């Protein structure tokens, strides 16, 4: 390994999506030696696909809006395992972060008075659930993620951020004390592998929706940061919590925004009935995503699904009129025509609940510092490791994320991590250097693939993994199916450990990238499966036939998955916001 | 901003404007000449040279020649910068073009105002 | 059986690029070109191409399909296949890294050159800067660009002078900021563009408009920049 090049930074940010770019911007302004390392050119990151908007109490649609109401919705939406200090931080800091984005140039849609346009989204209320539906999601038509990601990239250009574009982070490098002191990374264009040394390593690697066969996620969402952290032995939090978005286009999995329902669209079954009126009499189609997704599956299972196979429902938009569709939902009309062959001006869009978002991830505090537990179950900071965005579990989303909260999460906690790292660097960070054997340990799996001479193909193993997850860990779960799933995954892990990388060339070898991604998918899938099996209740996105009720006595907790022992423990949820009263758990209805 | 020293107007905007204005002048001149030829079917040398003996026609023609020279220079300069990637070749071609344009222009003037 | 012919080049093993023939049983489905590539790659893992969102918003998989640039993920076989044959080549005019992957360095450099970020020298207010819906409407058809490079790599002016001509994508973004009522750097932006190459190498042939997968119109934006330059200088 002695011939391997070393790059040194104060901070390395792995991932060029919304949270990574926001963190990078903060650090670039500080003048620290920072780089963003991204496996795709930053504007190809999955943030670009976010549509509906960024939820934040900027008091535009309603001048009396209050961030506390937003916080209440967020805590309730998360079925009360949202950390209330984190939700408090996000909702109260949110307006600052959104105004900053606007000042950076984000082309928000506007109201007649010139302020940022806000639309209603699911799970939003005024006055702590008492004042009816709120309109709190700031939007740039239905391309908010695209507008946000490009704006952040542009401002990073303005501030001369260093980019390592099309570089793939392979594994974390830990020193003898267990501190994270960098990573191994590969330049995809040339195949060169380098040792990246850094005092702070930020996981901004996004989600891992590709563990499921049907997902709204980009093909690049393979949970690379989660995989790296798990292999380094760090625990994951709430990995059983996967959001299924109600409206993925049937067959293609492509997302159509909740904003469609926010603008007045609704779901109908084969009889043309607006069935959400039965499941959520007040919020109807704008109930929490988990509630809507479950209701759709119930309709389908009870024989009221649409189409020949009765396996989807329709999203009706035609009554909104061409003008609203063109003005507020132009991207949706385009996607629907391309992927569903349906023009929403005339025909409803066939939709089905589709894997969309990972609520779990690397447990962190509000500064983005990764957390692990000591032998007594107390929180301990992981030196050198940070996480933000979907890869992190702060946890503001608890058991179910509200629409529009992900973009806010990205910018608020990306910014927070950047600010914290800057001050930590100013105070001085000094960790023990990694030894040659530490670096070699991080090279292990890369070497394994490079030396493989036979075995199964990556593509086939990936398909198998995705179908196990789809069949055993979907919208509804039950013990026996999950048991079987866990067993199959254990078997699959062995086979992936012996799989074959046929093409060993250096230049732009996407086969090698996909092989390395498969390891990460495997880690995420197993953490999800084992945590899901362990949580014996139904809460938020985690619904079990065999334990249909929420069990606050035992499970008003975060789950913690420990990879070394493959054990699931618990971690206390934070119920101590600093400036508002605790939101006590209540029965969650919409 | 890309800096150039060999284009005509030193700015893309002036080149672009020159190209358009000269094109309009050339179009007018062409229309005039074609119309003149159509309306004078039995045209002989005396009529033709008396047309060019008039001062306004000489000025109009000179304007057209200058327009042609400018138009040709801007257009051919663009062509050389598009297709000739070797600097000596491109510079050589540009020198040849500008000499030719100059020669034709002066020749045109002597024809108009010469004996 | 669909006949697929793909441009192949691996700098480590090939002295020259070549076209490789594949056959694929689509079972009569109207797949997207990206699906075809993914299916072929499952069999031949050496095939390299970029992809990410697979829904036409990330701009990764711009390529030349049967002679026309577009995004593989939102181009269906029925849109593009003629006589049961699909020919895939990398975007024209940029250096090939491997197979269908091109080096986009020059393209990004031209994008960076136009200072693609809002500039406003007035102190920011405590809330957002106000903008009327009418002023915001001026950004429609501009901000949606996904930097896929389909337009610039179909433009002969960009082929000949990729180092000097900003190209349709960069100019569309340039106008996106010129048109933004919140941007105050109009004069500086224009002064960077008045040379004979940056904008004026556009000859209005509109290849960019014909290929843009997002239905945008860079030629119109370039015309508007020219109008602004003229108004500014006369």
Automatic annotation (TrEMBL), chain A:
<feature type="domain" description="Fumarate reductase/succinate dehydrogenase flavoprotein-like C-terminal">
    <location>
        <begin position="463"/>
        <end position="590"/>
    </location>
</feature>
<dbReference type="InterPro" id="IPR011281">
    <property type="entry name" value="Succ_DH_flav_su_fwd"/>
</dbReference>
<dbReference type="InterPro" id="IPR036188">
    <property type="entry name" value="FAD/NAD-bd_sf"/>
</dbReference>
<dbReference type="GO" id="GO:0008177">
    <property type="term" value="F:succinate dehydrogenase (quinone) activity"/>
</dbReference>
<keyword id="KW-0472">Membrane</keyword>
<protein>
    <recommendedName>
        <fullName>Succinate dehydrogenase flavoprotein subunit</fullName>
        <ecNumber>1.3.5.1</ecNumber>
    </recommendedName>
</protein>
<keyword id="KW-0813">Transport</keyword>
<feature type="domain" description="FAD-dependent oxidoreductase 2 FAD-binding">
    <location>
        <begin position="10"/>
        <end position="407"/>
    </location>
</feature>
<dbReference type="InterPro" id="IPR003953">
    <property type="entry name" value="FAD-dep_OxRdtase_2_FAD-bd"/>
</dbReference>
<comment type="similarity">
    <text>Belongs to the FAD-dependent oxidoreductase 2 family. FRD/SDH subfamily.</text>
</comment>
<keyword id="KW-0997">Cell inner membrane</keyword>
<keyword id="KW-0816">Tricarboxylic acid cycle</keyword>
<keyword id="KW-0274">FAD</keyword>
<keyword id="KW-0249">Electron transport</keyword>
<dbReference type="InterPro" id="IPR037099">
    <property type="entry name" value="Fum_R/Succ_DH_flav-like_C_sf"/>
</dbReference>
TrEMBL record, chain B:
<dbReference type="InterPro" id="IPR014312">
    <property type="entry name" value="Succ_DH_anchor"/>
</dbReference>
<feature type="transmembrane region" description="Helical">
    <location>
        <begin position="21"/>
        <end position="39"/>
    </location>
</feature>
<keyword id="KW-0813">Transport</keyword>
<keyword id="KW-0816">Tricarboxylic acid cycle</keyword>
<keyword id="KW-1133">Transmembrane helix</keyword>
<dbReference type="InterPro" id="IPR034804">
    <property type="entry name" value="SQR/QFR_C/D"/>
</dbReference>
<keyword id="KW-0249">Electron transport</keyword>
<keyword id="KW-0479">Metal-binding</keyword>
<keyword id="KW-0349">Heme</keyword>
<keyword id="KW-0812">Transmembrane</keyword>
<comment type="pathway">
    <text>Carbohydrate metabolism; tricarboxylic acid cycle.</text>
</comment>
<keyword id="KW-0997">Cell inner membrane</keyword>
<keyword id="KW-0472">Membrane</keyword>
<protein>
    <recommendedName>
        <fullName>Succinate dehydrogenase hydrophobic membrane anchor subunit</fullName>
    </recommendedName>
</protein>
<keyword id="KW-1003">Cell membrane</keyword>
Automatic annotation (TrEMBL), chain C:
<keyword id="KW-0408">Iron</keyword>
<keyword id="KW-0003">3Fe-4S</keyword>
<dbReference type="Pfam" id="PF13085">
    <property type="entry name" value="Fer2_3"/>
</dbReference>
<keyword id="KW-0560">Oxidoreductase</keyword>
<protein>
    <recommendedName>
        <fullName>succinate dehydrogenase</fullName>
        <ecNumber>1.3.5.1</ecNumber>
    </recommendedName>
</protein>
<dbReference type="InterPro" id="IPR017896">
    <property type="entry name" value="4Fe4S_Fe-S-bd"/>
</dbReference>
<dbReference type="InterPro" id="IPR017900">
    <property type="entry name" value="4Fe4S_Fe_S_CS"/>
</dbReference>
<dbReference type="InterPro" id="IPR009051">
    <property type="entry name" value="Helical_ferredxn"/>
</dbReference>
<dbReference type="InterPro" id="IPR050573">
    <property type="entry name" value="SDH/FRD_Iron-Sulfur"/>
</dbReference>
<keyword id="KW-0411">Iron-sulfur</keyword>
<dbReference type="InterPro" id="IPR036010">
    <property type="entry name" value="2Fe-2S_ferredoxin-like_sf"/>
</dbReference>
<comment type="similarity">
    <text>Belongs to the succinate dehydrogenase/fumarate reductase iron-sulfur protein family.</text>
</comment>
<dbReference type="InterPro" id="IPR025192">
    <property type="entry name" value="Succ_DH/fum_Rdtase_N"/>
</dbReference>
<feature type="domain" description="4Fe-4S ferredoxin-type">
    <location>
        <begin position="135"/>
        <end position="165"/>
    </location>
</feature>
<keyword id="KW-0001">2Fe-2S</keyword>
């Amino acid at each position: 390994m002695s011939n391997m090049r070393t790059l040194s930074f104060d901070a390395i940010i792995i991932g060029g999506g919304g949270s990574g770019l926001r963190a990078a911007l903060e650090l670039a302004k500080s003048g620290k030696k920072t780089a963003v390392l991204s496996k795709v050119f930053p504007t190809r990151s999955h943030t670009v696909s976010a549509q509906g908007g960024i939820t934040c109490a900027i008091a535009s649609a309603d001048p009396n809006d209050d961030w506390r109401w937003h916080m209440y919705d967020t805590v309730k939406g998360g079925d009360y395992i949202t950390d209330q200090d984190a939700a408090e931080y996000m909702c109260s800091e949110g307006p600052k972060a959104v105004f900053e984005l606007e000042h950076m140039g984000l082309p928000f849609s506007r109201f007649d008075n010139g302020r940022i346009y806000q639309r209603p989204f699911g799970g939003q209320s005024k006055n702590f659930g008492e004042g009816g539906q709120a309109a709190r999601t700031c939007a740039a038509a239905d391309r908010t993620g695209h507008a946000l990601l490009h704006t952040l990239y542009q401002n990073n250009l303005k501030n001369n951020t260093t980019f390592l574009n099309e570089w793939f982070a392979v594994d974390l490098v830990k020193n003898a004390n267990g501190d994270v002191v960098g990573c191994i990374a590969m330049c995809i264009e040339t195949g060169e592998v380098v040792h990246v040394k850094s005092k702070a390593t930020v996981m901004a690697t996004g989600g891992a929706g590709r563990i499921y066969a049907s997902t709204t996620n980009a093909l690049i969402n393979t949970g690379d940061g989660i995989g790296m952290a798990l292999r380094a032995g760090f625990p994951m939090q709430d990995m059983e919590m996967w959001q299924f978005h109600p409206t993925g286009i049937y067959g293609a999995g492509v997302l159509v925004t909740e904003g469609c329902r926010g603008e007045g669209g609704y779901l109908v079954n084969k009889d043309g009935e607006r069935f959400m009126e039965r499941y959520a009499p007040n919020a109807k189609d704008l109930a929490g995503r988990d509630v809507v997704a479950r209701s759709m599956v119930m309709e389908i299972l009870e024989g009221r699904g649409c189409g020949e196979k009765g396996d989807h429902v329709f999203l009706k938009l035609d009554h909104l009129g061409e003008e609203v569709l063109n003005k507020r939902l132009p991207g949706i009309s385009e996607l629907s025509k391309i992927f569903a062959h349906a023009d929403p001006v005339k025909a409803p869009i066939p939709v089905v609940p589709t894997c969309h978002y990972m609520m779990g991830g690397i447990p962190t505090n509000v500064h983005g510092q990764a957390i692990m537990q000591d032998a007594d179950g107390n929180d301990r900071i992981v030196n050198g490791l940070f996480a933000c965005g979907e890869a992190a579990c702060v946890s503001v989303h608890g058991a179910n994320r509200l629409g529009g909260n992900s973009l806010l999460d990205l910018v608020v906690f990306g910014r927070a991590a950047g600010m914290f790292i800057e001050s930590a660097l100013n105070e001085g960070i000094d960790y023990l250097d990694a030894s040659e054997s530490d670096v070699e340990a991080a090279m292990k799996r890369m070497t394994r693939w490079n030396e493989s001479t036979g075995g199964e193909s990556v593509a086939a193993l990936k398909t198998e993994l995705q179908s196990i997850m789809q069949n055993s860990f979907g919208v509804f779960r039950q013990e026996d199916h999950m048991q079987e799933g866990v067993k199959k995954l254990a078997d699959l892990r062995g086979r992936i450990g012996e799989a074959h990388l046929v093409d060993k060339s250096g230049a732009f070898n996407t086969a090698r990238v996909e092989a390395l991604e498969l390891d990460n998918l495997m880690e995420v899938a197993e953490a999800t499966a084992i945590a899901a099996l362990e949580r014996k209740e139904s809460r938020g996105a985690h619904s079990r036939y065999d334990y249909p009720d929420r069990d606050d006595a035992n499970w008003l907790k975060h789950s913690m998955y420990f990879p070394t022992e493959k054990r699931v423990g618990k971690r206390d949820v934070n119920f101590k916001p600093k400036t508002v009263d605790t939101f006590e758990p209540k029965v969650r209805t919409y | 901003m890309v800096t150039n020293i060999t284009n005509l107007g030193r700015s893309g905007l002036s080149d672009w404007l020159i190209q358009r204005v000269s094109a309009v002048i050339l179009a007018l001149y062409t229309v005039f000449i074609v119309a003149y030829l159509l309306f004078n079917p039995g045209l002989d040398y005396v009529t033709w040279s008396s047309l060019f003996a008039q001062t306004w026609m000489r000025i109009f023609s000179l304007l057209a020649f200058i327009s042609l020279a400018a138009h040709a220079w801007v257009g051919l300069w663009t062509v050389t910068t598009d297709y000739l990637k070797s600097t000596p070749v491109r510079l050589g071609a540009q020198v040849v073009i500008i000499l030719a344009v100059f020669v034709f222009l002066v020749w045109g003037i002597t024809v108009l105002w010469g004996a | 059986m669909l006949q697929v012919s793909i441009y192949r080049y691996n700098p480590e093993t090939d002295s020259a690029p070549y076209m490789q023939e594949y056959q694929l049983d689509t079972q009569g489905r109207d797949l997207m070109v990206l699906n075809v590539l993914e299916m072929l790659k499952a069999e031949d893992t050496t095939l390299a191409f970029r992809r990410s969102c697979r829904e036409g918003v990330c701009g990764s998989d711009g390529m030349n399909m049967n002679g026309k640039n577009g995004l593989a993920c939102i181009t269906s076989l029925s849109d593009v296949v003629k006589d049961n044959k699909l020919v895939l080549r990398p975007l024209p005019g940029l250096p090939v890294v491997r197979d269908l992957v091109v080096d986009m360095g020059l393209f990004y450099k031209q994008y960076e050159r136009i200072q693609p970020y809002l500039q406003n020298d007035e102190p920011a207010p405590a809330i957002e800067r106000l903008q009327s819906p009418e002023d915001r409407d001026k950004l429609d058809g501009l901000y949606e660009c996904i930097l896929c490079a389909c337009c610039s790599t179909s433009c002969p002016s960009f082929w000949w002078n990729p180092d000097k001509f900003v190209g349709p994508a960069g100019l569309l973004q340039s106008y996106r900021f010129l048109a933004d009522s919140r941007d105050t750097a109009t004069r500086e932006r224009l002064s960077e563009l008045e040379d004979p190459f940056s904008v004026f190498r556009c000859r209005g042939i509109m290849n960019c408009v014909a290929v843009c997968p997002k239905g945008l119109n860079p030629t119109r934006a370039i015309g508007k920049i020219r109008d602004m330059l003229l108004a500014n200088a006369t």
